[in-house]
Write a sequence for this structure.
């Protein structure tokens, strides 16, 4: 009796991939591709580049799955998510240094955050605006808010100081609030 691979739990998918079973690899890919693409697009704004990063991430997953230890349901997804975030960061580093230049820093140092208007928008509108942030702002914003990292973890991951991480996050928030206020409907 043949078992449908798309109905397998994580432990079975991991075993199948460790056995180099192409059907198992496809099942893992199919199960997580959509969520991982969304993750990649949070960091890499160009759709084609994000697809390339996604493919490289899955290749790394399959290449290193032999060293992965399944620790229960959800651990495979968490491990894959970490691979994708790292793949996105490597892509951004290759393109160019992505932290704000001094000119951008001066622009936001003396601004107050103003009222919190994030509560008045839906998630899709906010994601579109996050996409317009400079790479550095967007990267740190994503790591902090979506990946749940603290400034120490971000600084170690990106090779920057904690102060730089904090200031980039502050500027990302200020920039987003400014964009939101500029696009705010009259009824808000």
């Amino acid at each position: 009796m043949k078992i449908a691979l798309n109905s397998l739990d994580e432990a079975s998918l991991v075993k199948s991939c460790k056995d180099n079973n192409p059907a198992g690899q496809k099942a893992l890919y199919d199960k997580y591709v959509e969520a991982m693409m969304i993750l990649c697009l949070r960091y890499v704004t160009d759709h084609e580049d994000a697809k390339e990063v996604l493919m490289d991430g899955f290749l790394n997953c399959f290449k290193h799955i032999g060293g992965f230890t399944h620790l229960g349901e959800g651990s495979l997804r968490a491990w894959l998510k970490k691979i994708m975030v790292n793949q996105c960061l490597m892509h951004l580093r290759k393109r160019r240094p992505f932290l704000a230049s001094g000119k951008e820093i001066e622009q936001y140092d003396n601004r107050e955050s103003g009222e919190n208007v994030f509560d008045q928008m839906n998630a899709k509108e906010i994601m579109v605006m996050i996409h317009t942030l400079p790479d550095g702002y967007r990267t740190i914003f994503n790591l902090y808010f979506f990946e749940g990292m603290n400034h120490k973890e971000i600084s170690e991951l990106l090779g920057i100081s904690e102060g730089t991480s904090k200031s980039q996050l502050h500027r990302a928030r200020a920039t987003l609030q400014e964009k939101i206020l500029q696009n705010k409907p009259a009824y808000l």
